[in-house]
Design a protein that fits this description.
Chains A, B: Residues 149-211, 212-269 form the CBS domain. The structure is a homodimer of 461-residue chains. By secondary structure, chain A is mainly alpha-helical. Chain A has three domains: 19-142, MgtE N-terminal domain-like (MgtE N-terminal fold), CATH 1.25.60; 155-255, Roll (CBS-domain), CATH 3.10.580.10; 287-459, SLC41 divalent cation transporters, integral membrane domain (Tetracycline Repressor, domain 2, Orthogonal Bundle). Chain A has 22 helices and five strands. Chain A has helices spanning 19-30, 34-41, 46-55, 58-67, 70-76, 82-89, 94-101, 106-113, 118-127, 131-138, 145-148, 162-171, 197-202, 209-212, 226-235, 256-274, 287-314, 316-321, 329-353, 361-390, 396-427, 438-459, and strands at 155-157, 181-185, 191-196, 240-244, 250-255. At the A-B interface, helix 1, helix 3, helix 12, helix 13 and helix 15 of A face helix 1, helix 3, helix 12, helix 13 and helix 15 of B.
Chain lengths: 461, 461
C-alpha cells in the first residue's frame, strides 16, 4: 500500500486487528523489522494489542512484547488471558515486572501478580507502591466481590462541599478512571451516600455534599459471590458498585467492565458443565488440561453406559425372541437423554438468572409435566408412524403400539427427572449446573432402557 | 412485626423482594387491602417491583399493577419480561397506555410498544411526544444496534464551550439519564468527538469543547448485529456507545445496561441451542411454545436415532452370533455423543467470543486431535479393564481388545467431527451453535455404531 492510499479500515474501527494484521506482524517480526512493527501497532487500543499478542505464535508474541515500550505493554496486560500473561511475563526481571505492574489499577495489579512466578511475585509485591492494598485484595476469594473490586475510589467526607468533591475527582484523575460517582463517607469512613458525576457537575460549588448525595446506595460486602454481584449490577443498571466491610466502611468499588467478564465467564462455564467439561477450558489451555477436564465425565459416562449395557444384556432373552426390539435402543436413549437435558437446562437457567423462586416450583413442575405429555404424544405418534411405514409383517400394529406407549412413558419420566434434579441439587446446596449434561443423560439412558424393555416384555412378547 | 422493630433486611438490600414478600402481597391483595399493598411496595426500585409482579399469580399481578400510581408502574415496565408486559398491559385504554409509555426513554418506549396489542399500538404511537423517534427505532431490526439504542443524547456543536456543554447536560437531565459523556457534533450533526463527564467537570468553563473532546471515539452503525455491539463495548470497556448513520450523523447511543441483557440472552440462547431447544424458551413461555421449541430437535433426533437403530439391525447377524456385543451399544453411543458435544461446544464458544480466528484453525484441530488421542487411550484402557473385570470366559481378552480398539477410533472420529463441524458451518455463514447438541450427538451415534460394528465384525467374529 502506498503511503498516500487511504487505509481501508478507519483507525477507530473495531476490526482493525484481524488475520491480515497478524500475518503482517509475523512477517515483520521474522524479518526483524522492529521499527515497522512498532509503527504498525502504535495506534492500537490496549484490548486490540492484547488480541494481536494472543493470536501471534507464542515465541513471536514474546518478541513483540519485549520490543514495545513498557507503558504500552502495561496497559495491555489486564486485557490478556491468564495463560498468555504467564507466558509473556516469564523470564522478566523483578524491576521490569514492577515497572509493568505499578501503573495499573489495584484490581488489575492483583490479577497480573497472580500470573507471576510465585517465587518472584513476593519480591515484586513488596516493591509496588500500593503493596498493602494489593495484599489485601489478594486475600479475597477470586470469585468474590473482594476479588473483583479495585481499592481506588474518589471519596470525600459528608461535610465536604461540591467544590471540594470536584477537587477530589481532579486529584484522583489518574488513579480512578473512569469516574462514575464520588462516595461520601462519615468520620469512620463508613459509606454514607453516592454523588453521581452528573449531579456534581450540575450543583453549585458551595453546596454541601450531604445535600446532593443519594443515601440509599446499593453496596455489597467483599465476600459476596461474583455471580450475585453481577446480578445486582444488572438488576439495578449500575455501572459502579461500592464494596463495604461488614461494619459499613468503604473498601473499594467494582466497575461494570469487570462484571461483564463475569457474566460471560459464568455463561461459558454453564455451557461447559452442560456438555460435561469440568474446570474451565480455554482456547489457550494445554492438551493435558483439556483432556483432564473432559475425561472426568467421559469416564463416569463410560461407567453409566456400562450399566445401560447391562440392562440391555439383562433383557437378552427378550432380544433373542424379538431381535427387532434392538431397533429401539438408540431411539429410547436419544429421546430420554434429550428430553431430560432440555428440561434440566431450563431449570438451571432459571436458577442461575435468579428468576426461578421456590414459590414457582409447583407451577414449574406442573408446566414441565404438561410439556412432557404433549411432546410424549407427538413423539409416540411419530414413532408409531415410522414403524407402520417401515412395516414389520403381522406384528406391525402391536410393535407400533408397544413402541409408542413405551416412548410416551420414557419422555414423561425423563423430562420430569431433568426438571427436578437441578431444583433438588440447588435445595441441598450443590451447583445445579452439575445436573445438566452427562449426569442427566446417563441416568435417563438407564431409566429409559429399563422402562422400555419392561413395557416391551409386558406388551409385545 | 411491631412498628418499632427494625426490619431484618435493610431497605437497600437487593434481597428485599423474595418469597415472603410475594406471599404477604398475595394475602393482602386477596383481602383487598390496597393501602397496605401500596405502602409495602412504595420503596421498591423499579427492577424489584418488576420481579414482584412477575412472581405474583397473573390475576393478582394485574390487580396490583392497576392499583399502583402510573409514575411507579411506568418505571417498572421496561424491567418486565415481554410476556408479562403483554399480560399486564392488556385491556388498558389508549390514554392509559400513553400516560405509561410517554415518560420512558425512547428505546424503552419502542420495546414496550411492541408488546401492546397491534390494533391499539398505532393509536398509542401517534399520541406519544416522541412519535417520530419511536417510529424510526421500530424500523430497526430487534437484534441490531438500532434496536438497542435510545435517541436521547446530550450533543453540542464543536464550537460550544464547556459551560454550554454543562448547560446542555442540565437541560437534558430528565431525558438522558444516566449521562456518561457529551457528544460533540459538526454543523451537519456528524459525530466529531466525545467529552467524558469527568473531563467536563474538570475543564474551565470557557474552554471550547473541541479542545477537550476525544476525537477517536468508537461508534457503530445501526444495522450492526447486537452480539457485535456487545463485543465492542466489552472489548473497549465502554459504558455508552454512540450510534451513527452510514454518513456519520449521530443517531443515538447504546448504554451498557442494554448490552448486559444481550450478553445474558445470547449465552442463554447458546445453551438452549446446545441442548436442542429452538426459539427462546423463557420461564413465562406457554406450554405450547415450550413444546414447539423442544419438539423440532426431538423429532429430528427421533429420525436420526431410527437410522442408528437400522445400523444395529443391519448388524443383527453379528449380534446373533455374539449377543454380548449389545453391551457396548450404549457405551459407544454415550462416548461418541459426549466427546463430540464437548469439542463442538469449545469451538462454538471460541467463535462466539471472537477469540477463535481463521489463522488459529490448524493449531486448533491439531490440539483436538491430541486431546482425542489422549482421551481415546484412557477410555479404551478403562473399557478393556471393565471387560476383563466382568469376565466373559475364554473370549475375555479378545473382547476387551476389540472393544478398546473400537472405542479408541470412535473417540478420535467423534471428537474431530465435533470440532470441525461448527467451523465449517461458520465458514458457510450458518450459526455454528446449531452444530452443538442433538445434531452432533445423533450424527456421532450413527458414525460410532457403524465403526464399532465394523471393527467388531473384523476382529471379534
Amino acid at each position: 500500500m502506498s503511503e498516500n492510499a487511504a487505509p481501508v479500515v478507519p483507525p477507530d474501527s473495531p476490526t482493525l486487528v484481524d488475520d491480515h494484521l497478524v500475518e503482517a506482524v509475523v512477517d515483520l517480526v521474522e524479518a526483524g523489522h522492529r521499527g515497522h512493527v512498532l509503527n504498525l501497532v502504535a495506534d492500537l487500543r490496549p484490548a486490540d494489542l492484547a488480541a494481536l499478542l494472543q493470536h501471534l505464535p507464542a515465541d513471536l508474541a514474546r518478541v513483540v512484547f519485549r520490543w514495545l515500550p513498557e507503558e504500552v505493554t502495561s496497559r495491555a496486560l489486564p486485557e490478556l488471558e491468564s495463560a498468555e500473561r504467564v507466558d509473556l511475563l516469564d523470564g522478566l526481571s523483578t524491576p521490569e515486572l514492577v515497572a509493568l505492574i505499578d501503573p495499573l489499577a489495584s484490581d488489575d495489579q492483583a490479577d497480573v501478580l497472580a500470573d507471576v512466578d510465585v517465587t518472584q511475585a513476593e519480591d515484586v509485591l513488596v516493591q509496588l507502591e500500593d503493596a498493602v492494598d494489593i495484599e489485601a485484595l489478594l486475600s479475597y476469594g477470586e470469585d468474590t466481590a473482594g476479588g473483583l473490586m479495585a481499592t481506588e475510589v474518589v471519596a470525600v467526607p459528608l461535610t465536604a462541599t461540591v467544590a471540594e468533591a470536584t477537587e477530589a475527582v481532579r486529584s484522583n484523575a489518574d488513579a480512578v478512571d473512569p469516574v462514575f460517582a464520588v462516595y461520601a463517607v462519615d468520620e469512620e469512613n463508613k459509606l454514607a451516600g453516592v454523588i453521581p458525576l452528573k449531579r456534581l457537575l450540575l450543583s453549585p460549588a458551595d453546596t454541601p455534599v450531604h445535600e446532593v448525595c443519594e443515601g440509599d446506595a446499593v453496596s455489597v460486602e467483599p465476600d459476596l459471590d461474583q455471580e450475585e454481584v453481577a446480578r445486582i449490577m444488572e438488576r439495578y443498571d449500575l455501572v459502579a458498585l461500592p464494596v463495604v466491610s461488614a461494619g459499613g466502611r468503604l473498601l473499594g468499588r467494582i466497575t461494570i467492565d469487570d462484571v461483564m467478564n463475569v457474566i460471560r465467564e459464568e455463561a461459558e462455564e454453564d455451557l461447559q458443565r452442560a456438555v460435561g467439561i469440568t474446570g474451565e477450558e480455554e482456547l489457550s489451555s494445554s492438551i493435558f488440561a483439556v483432556s483432564r477436564g473432559r475425561l472426568v465425565w467421559l469416564l463416569l459416562g463410560l461407567c453409566g453406559a456400562y450399566v445401560s449395557g447391562l440392562v440391555i444384556v439383562g433383557f437378552e432373552e427378550a432380544l433373542t425372541i424379538a431381535p427387532v426390539l434392538a431397533l429401539f435402543i438408540p431411539i429410547v436413549m436419544a429421546m430420554a437423554g434429550n428430553a431430560g437435558i432440555q428440561s434440566s437446562a431450563i431449570a438451571v437457567q432459571g436458577l442461575a438468572s435468579g428468576d426461578l423462586w421456590r414459590s414457582d416450583l409447583a407451577r414449574r413442575i406442573g408446566k414441565e409435566l404438561g410439556v412432557a405429555l404433549l411432546n410424549g404424544v407427538v413423539l409416540a405418534v411419530a414413532l408409531a408412524g415410522i414403524v407402520v411405514l417401515s412395516g414389520f409383517g403381522d406384528d406391525t400394529a402391536r410393535l407400533a403400539l408397544t413402541a409408542a406407549i413405551a416412548l410416551m412413558i420414557v419422555i414423561v419420566l425423563s423430562t420430569l427427572v431433568g426438571a427436578t434434579v437441578p431444583l433438588a441439587l440447588n435445595r441441598i446446596g450443590i451447583d445445579p449446573a452439575l445436573a445438566m449434561g452427562p449426569f442427566i443423560t446417563v441416568s435417563n439412558d438407564i431409566l429409559g432402557l429399563t422402562v422400555f424393555f419392561l413395557v416391551a416384555t409386558l406388551l409385545y412378547l
